[in-house]
């Protein structure tokens, strides 16, 4: 019996999944309230971003006991840029 479950193709891995909250995160800004990227891809991309930030932060320490303020500043900027944060201090 085919119950005609609506499916949705992830725009990153091109895999079709049942169109529900089990495979796609909800996104109120999308037409039917679900993301166009599957959960797996979304997790992967957010983890990738996290690793990139971690690497950037680690690179700034370079086995010095006292961090160079200029380098620390640069890493903060990189961090903000990655997260799209705006520092209004
Ligand atoms: Zn996917």
List the helices and strands and how they pair.
Elements: E1 7-9, E2 16-18, E3 24-26, E4 34-38, H1 39-61, H2 69-83
Please characterize this protein's 3D structure.
This protein is of the alpha+beta class and 89 residues long. It has two domains: 35 residues, no CATH class; 37 residues. The protein has two helices and four strands. The strands form two sheets. A two-stranded antiparallel ribbon has the order 1-2. A hairpin with a 7-residue loop joins β3 and β4. α1 runs antiparallel to α2. The chain starts with 6 loop residues before the first strand and ends in a 6-residue tail after the last helix.
Query: What's the pLDDT, averaged over the residues?
Result: 81
Work out the strand percent. 15-25%
**Principal-axis shape:** elongated
The helicity comes to: 40-55%
Indicate how many domains the architecture comprises: 2
Low-pLDDT stretches are none
- CA-atom Rg in angstroms: 20 Å
Structural class: alpha+beta
């Amino acid at each position: 019996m085919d119950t005609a479950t609506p499916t949705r193709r992830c725009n990153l891995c091109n895999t079709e999944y049942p169109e529900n909250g089990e495979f796609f995160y909800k996104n109120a800004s999308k037409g039917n309230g679900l993301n166009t990227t599957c959960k797996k891809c979304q997790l992967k991309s957010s983890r990738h971003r996290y690793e990139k930030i971690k690497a950037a932060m680690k690179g700034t320490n370079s086995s010095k006991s006292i961090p160079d303020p200029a380098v620390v500043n640069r890493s903060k900027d990189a961090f903000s840029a990655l997260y799209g944060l705006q520092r209004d201090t």
